[in-house]
């Protein structure tokens, strides 16, 4: 039996020339801007996402955002990212930072490089927030810089992603 591949399926397997970054937000971050501004600031999640997407547009990068309150949905989105050939992930795992081996395993399995972001400084808070299941796998961690932390993580991703040529090969930029 032969399998007919649709042009859409073929298109999906061809890496885009434009960097593709996925920004993932964990549970309760949909409440940003409405409660606990002392810890998490006044910006809403929409405010944060708008800035990130428009920064992507300015440099011809695809920036997608996704928030969910359920561990499985976040894991499924990471699997989808591998399928979509996402180049880099910026993730605030929120409460799952301190509990989720399953989410850690999903990131490890897909091997997409990621930066871990926290709005608050998790080391200046309760001891149970000092441990992260993600930090040792992350390229880096930004914690305590509020919404600006997401922008810094995105800038890092855009600057350090390998430049793809139209021939499909990759030119790796020198780290500075
Ligand atoms: O500082 C961060 O970004 C955290 O990842 C936020 C998590 C917390 O469990 C981590 O320890 C640190 C909590 C996100 C809850 O977000 C809310 C936003 C507005 C109002 C209430 C909660």
Automatic annotation (TrEMBL):
Q: Where is the active site?
A: 40, 118
A GO molecular-function descriptor = 3-dehydroquinate dehydratase activity
Q: Which InterPro entries match?
A: DHquinase_II, DHquinase_II_CS, DHquinase_II_sf
Provide the reaction this enzyme catalyses.
3-dehydroquinate = 3-dehydroshikimate + H2O
* NCBIfam families membership: aroQ, PRK05395.1-1, PRK05395.1-2, PRK05395.1-3, PRK05395.1-4
EC class: lyase
Does the entry feature the keyword Amino-acid biosynthesis, yes or no? yes
Keyword tags = Amino-acid biosynthesis, Aromatic amino acid biosynthesis, Lyase
Q: In UniProt terms, what function does this protein have?
A: Catalyzes a trans-dehydration via an enolate intermediate.
Q: Which family does it belong to?
A: Belongs to the type-II 3-dehydroquinase family.
- Which parts of the sequence are marked as the site Transition state stabilizer? 35
- Kindly list the biological process annotations in GO that this record carries: amino acid biosynthetic process; aromatic amino acid family biosynthetic process; chorismate biosynthetic process; quinate catabolic process
Q: Name one Pfam family in it.
A: DHquinase_II
Name of the molecule in the record: 3-dehydroquinate dehydratase
Enzyme Commission code(s) on record? 4.2.1.10
Q: Which residues bind substrate?
A: 92, 98, 105, 119-120, 129
Pathway participation:
Metabolic intermediate biosynthesis; chorismate biosynthesis; chorismate from D-erythrose 4-phosphate and phosphoenolpyruvate: step 3/7
Complexes and interactors? Homododecamer.
Organism the protein comes from: Thiobacillus denitrificans
């Amino acid at each position: 039996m032969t399998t007919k591949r649709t042009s859409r399926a073929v298109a999906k397997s061809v890496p885009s020339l434009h960097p593709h970054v996925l920004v993932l937000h964990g549970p309760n971050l949909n409440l940003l801007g409405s409660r606990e501004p002392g810890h998490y600031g006044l910006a809403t999640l929409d405010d944060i996402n708008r800035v990130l997407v428009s920064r992507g547009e300015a440099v011809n990068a695809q920036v997608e955002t996704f928030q969910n309150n359920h561990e499985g949905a976040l894991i499924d989105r990471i699997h989808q990212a591998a399928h979509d050939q996402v180049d880099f992930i910026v993730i605030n795992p929120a409460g799952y930072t301190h509990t989720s081996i399953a989410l850690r395993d999903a990131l490890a399995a897909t091997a997409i490089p990621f930066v871990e972001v926290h709005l608050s400084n998790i080391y200046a808070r309760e001891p149970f927030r000092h441990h992260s299941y993600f930090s040792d796998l992350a390229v880096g961690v930004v914690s305590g810089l509020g919404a600006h932390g997401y922008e810094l993580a995105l800038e890092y991703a855009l600057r350090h992603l390998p430049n793809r040529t139209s021939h499909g090969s990759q030119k790796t930029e020198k780290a500075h």
